[in-house]
Amino acid sequence: MHRRTAPGDPLVLPGPWDAASAGVFVEAGFRALATPSAGVAASLGYEDGQTPADEMFAAVARIVRAVDVPVSADIEGGYGIAPKELVERLLETGAVGCNLEDSEDGTLKDPRAHADWLAEVRHAAADRLFVNARIDTFIRARGGADPKQATEQAIERAALYVAAGADCVYPIGAPTDVLPLLRSGIQGPINVHGTVTGGPAPAELGELGATRITFGPGLQRRAAEALRQITADLG
């Protein structure tokens, strides 16, 4: 699904936060899904980044069981679980891929150490999981990210992660105007964060270099806003 020939036709992956939302996205015609950790956390009553590993894996498993399309799972930084066990637990949920972050507690990890860890994940997974390596240079820079520096760092980290076996890299928070630079400097698929309302359409992001588009918790938050309006109207 990631090997599309037309630049303006990126793979668009809505982010289900529970089984019901997953069913809605499949009914709408989407051929694959990617869970957002923040959206799942909200559905379980946790703040982003505070979901216990057992509850996250259980939530992913429920989503996978509810649909007949491939599901990739955002498992944040891996919850401190050793790569082999992490892969085994992911496969037990039925997920076909995972999103893994390169920062912890708001701080960027050492890129080479993280690449080594990704290599262990890849070795344990072989070809059974699609590994999406998130790059946090744009959202974790102290005092605000300088786009030029964040872009250079993202390209450097991407090279390490791809060499370690990542199938795709995700420079989350990258401004739209740097996407062509990222595309020219990164080998392989690039995940770009899409917007639910406003902002460039998926086709435009594809023309700028996106291979696939995810939405983080945007859809879950939009649904929550709609529910607030509905309940307000009931009164």
| Beta-strand content | 5-15%
* Rg, nearest Å: 17 Å
Structural class: alpha/beta
The total beta strand count reads 10
Tally the helices: 10
For the sheet with most strands, the description reads:
5 strands, parallel
Please provide the ordered H/E string of secondary-structure elements: EHEHHEHEEEHEHHEHEHEH
CA(first)-CA(last) distance: 46 Å
Molecular shape:
globular
Mean pLDDT across the residues is: 95
Task: Give start-end ranges of low-pLDDT stretches.
Answer: none
- In the sheet with the most strands, the strands line up as 2-3-4-7-8
Assembly type of the chains comes to single chain
Helix percent band = 40-55%
Features:
235 residues; alpha/beta; five-stranded parallel beta sheet; three-stranded parallel beta sheet; 10 helices; 14% strand
Q: What secondary-structure arrangement, pairings included, does this model have?
A:
Layout: E1 11-13, H1 19-27, E2 33-34, H2 37-44, H3 53-66, E3 71-74, H4 83-93, E4 97-100, E5 103-104, E6 107-108, H5 111-125, E7 130-135, H6 137-140, H7 147-163, E8 168-171, H8 179-185, E9 191-193, H9 202-208, E10 212-214, H10 218-234
Parallel strand pairs: 1-10, 2-3, 3-4, 4-7, 7-8, 9-10
Antiparallel strand pairs: 5-6
Helix pairs in contact: 1-3, 3-4, 4-5, 5-7
General description of the model:
The chain is an alpha/beta fold. Helices cover 46% and strands 14% of the residues. Strands 2-3-4-7-8 form a 5-stranded parallel sheet, covered by helices on one side.
